[in-house]
Amino acid sequence: MLVEMSTQEVRWLLSARQHISLLHKRRTTMIVSRVRLVAALFSILTPLWIIIDIAAFPREVWLPLVVGRIAATIAFGMITLLAIKMRTMNDAYRVLAMLFAVPTAFFLFSYQHMAQFQLHGIQQAFSTGYAFLPFVMLAGLSIFPLTLLENIIFISPLLLMQFIAGILRLPVLDWPTFAASFWLMLLIAGVSVLAGISQLAFIIVLVREAIRDHMTGCFSRQSGEELLELQFAMSLRNHAPLTVAFLDLDHFKQINDRFGHEAGDAVLIGVASAIQEHLRQGDVFIRWGGEEFILVMPNTTPAQASVALQRVREEGLGLRPDGTPITASIGIAERIEDSLGDWRTLVDKADVRMYEAKQGGRDRIVGPGAQA
Ligand SMILES: Nc1nc2c(ncn2[C@@H]2O[C@H](COP(=O)(O)OP(=O)(O)OP(=O)(O)O)[C@@H](O)[C@H]2O)c(=O)[nH]1
Known about the structure:
Elements: H1 7-14, H2 21-56, H3 59-82, H4 89-114, H5 121-130, H6 133-140, H7 148-169, H8 175-211, H9 221-238, E1 242-249, H10 252-259, H11 261-277, E2 284-289, E3 292-298, H12 302-315, E4 328-334, H13 343-359, E5 365-366
Parallel strand pairs: 4-5
Antiparallel strand pairs: 1-3, 1-4, 2-3
This protein binds guanosine-5'-triphosphate.
Domain GGDEF: 240-370
GO molecular function, one term: diguanylate cyclase activity
Catalytic activity: 2 GTP = 3',3'-c-di-GMP + 2 diphosphate
């Protein structure tokens, strides 16, 4: 899968800093739902372990353990409920950190507690088994689609905890045993990180499929709507203009009817590449549906957008199969000049003007001010 990824996508595997909003959304949903599942499962399993504690240990050993397990059960239950409302990536980090904090706290507490007793036979076996909790937690990390950096951030405290616990135990434990268990922990961490990253790679490929329109290579309607929302919010925050152009090809149906659907598809691909050639970096070109396209131009006034689109029209959108030029009717709207409060009304305004362009005779631009 790595071989099929672009350099940017490989960078997404390393750190979440440049992740696009659609990827954030997908990961948030996946992480939060898995946190809920694990927390719910542990809120059932943790109290069941109380039976084993009571059966295996004398009262002075099991009583504090049981109190700790009840506290952990309540914490897992709260995480399960809390995760229902989590929507953003920061929320996802928070619940994930909580999910790991609960067993970590329980481990530190039970480890200190058990160290006070000289246990033998089956009791010692259980006590040694409890020391494997950090290993289980590390393995559990593999079900979350995290980047390399996020994995390191989550794994480091666990490795550090194991390292310190090992150093403290050195007087009673020989160093080869300590080194071997630490080595095992590093191996589990490595496998977990690989598993988590390959899940992330899978999500990235799915997101890529959803982002692009297969035929034209433009942004798809779904990702386009998210980008519009983002650009609108940024334009609002920066008090910067945001222009949207709605393009509809003229008499496109005739191409399909006279020359077939494949010829129509070829025209759409040609138009998309002709327009994309002239775009500025930062402009977003979306296939809105059928033969309708939307061009989102941040930090651009309608006058500047008209000049750019006029240039595109002069260069040409390509030819119909009969050799006549392809033309488009274009409506332009701008957030500030048209006093529009959200991206949907901005698109609607551009759409209305595109219809005015159609009614005015097609092959023209209608903007907030003049016609071209
Ligand atoms: N080949 C092809 N045709 C498509 C695709 N999507 C939509 N269409 C066709 O695009 C045509 C759109 O036609 P209309 O909206 O009626 O308008 P028009 O013929 O372009 O005329 P005006 O917009 O009024 O200038 C329909 O015939 C659709 O079937 C596509 O992916 N490929």
